[in-house]
Amino acid sequence: GALLLIALRYSTSIVFMAIFWALAQLIINAAQGPLTATVADRVVPEKVGSASAISGLGLMAGAILGSVAAGILFGAMGLDAYYPFALALAITAVLFVLFARDRSSKDLEVEPLHLGRFFASFLIPLRDADYRWVWIAKIVMMFGYTVSTAFSFFMLQGYVRPALSPAEATATAPLLALAGFPFMLAAMVIAGRWSDKIMKRKPFVFWASVTMAASFLIPLLWPALPALFLQGIIGGAAMGAYMVVDQALFIDVIPDKRTAGRDLGMSALGGNFGQAVGPIVAGQVVALTGGYTSVWIVSVLV
């Protein structure tokens, strides 16, 4: 993954850039699946919510702070800004392997690998009604959240009144993500501990989704810059509460704990699918309606 990030820095065309980025996504996500399964493998059920909070906190912190750091480093280093990220990726992976050692698998009995059955097995968890509902909920939550965030840079120039210049929008867009970050962290910690205490996950998923939908109404009814910041704060808190409890809920509903890696990998696929489809649908909505108002309406409904 680190080598592919460095290869991205030296891409001389969009074709090479697309190839290296796709491969980087493939390789880095191959590491993400087993990392998520580590929580299910090593944490007792009554601590899963808190452990998921820490895990989810790292995920969201990386996504938000990484984008901000990229902007700052690019301004200072240009394309060489890829190097610090590649170095961090390689070093942390090595540290994880050295200090978070797996239990010995010397005496572990495993079935012989059959490729046909292996690929067919990915559909097994979706046959379970509980798992399937959690999976669908994750797709639509990530869909709605991504639809609302994908076009913030353009909304700053073409939706809010008064509109910002391209330079002002460039400076303001990262601040929208940062505004909700402290509230996201607080919601993660509170929801994780609270869900462990009452041993319930579904109420948090429900109310986080309702709160997220309500946050989309703010810029819909008030197309101004403060409304986008307020939506970012409330939506960030909702997303924080959702992310941590969602991961704990997935661990709770895994049909077979021996296949935790596969089933949690499928949960990540659901999130990635929602994130990928969100901007595509939002782009079509903007193209069809000629404005961003409909984006908020679609987000609320989803």
Q: What kind of assembly state do the chains in view correspond to? A: single chain
Poorly predicted tracts of residues: none
Distance between the termini: 34 Å
Helix run count: 12
**On the 0-100 scale, what is the average pLDDT?**
84
Q: What spatial form do the alpha-carbon principal axes imply?
A: globular
Going by helix content, strand content and strand pairing, the class is: mainly alpha
Share of residues in helices: over 70%
How much β-strand is present in the residues? under 5%
In angstroms, what is the radius of gyration? 20 Å
Tally of strands: 0
Main β sheet profile:
none
Order of helices and strands: HHHHHHHHHHHH
Outline of the structure:
Helix content is 80%, strand content 0%. The protein contains twelve helices and no strands.
What descriptive keywords fit this protein?
302 residues, mainly alpha, 12 helices, 80% helix, 0% strand, globular
What is the topological layout?
Blueprint: H1 2-9, H2 14-42, H3 48-77, H4 82-99, H5 115-120, H6 129-150, H7 152-158, H8 166-198, H9 202-221, H10 225-253, H11 260-289, H12 293-301
